[in-house]
Amino acid sequence: MGIVLTIVIGALAGFLAGKIMKGAGFGFIVNLIVGIVGGFLGGNVLSWIGIHWGETIVGQLVTSVIGAILLLWIVSLLSKKK
Which of 30, 60, 64, 77 is most buried, by the most CB atoms less than 10 A from its CB? Predict the structure, then answer.
């Protein structure tokens, strides 16, 4: 059940971050990748500043969305430099 939940949360987090940052999603695979990487990034960044939401599904989703937004923001900064 863990991998299925990770896929669902990652895809949803990537979709929500895409809506917030760009106004549209990116497609299932890219949403999934952005969400999973965002979950890792968000978990690390939030733990650095002392925020822990536990292991609830809502906490994982919020952490993943925050991380995915941060990831998309960093990618947009790097793409503007070219």
Answer: 64
Q: How far is Cα 29 from Cα 24, in angstroms, rounded to an integer? A: 14
When pLDDT is cut at 50, 70 and 90, the band that residue 24 belongs to is low
> Which pTM value belongs to this model?
0.86
Could you state, in order of their start, the residue ranges of all structural domains in the chain? 2-80
Task: Report the alpha-carbon distance of residue 5 to residue 24 in Å, rounded.
Answer: 23
Neighbours of 71 (CB within 10 A): 22
Strands (E), the chain: none
Residue that is written with structure tokens 């960093």 in the block? 74
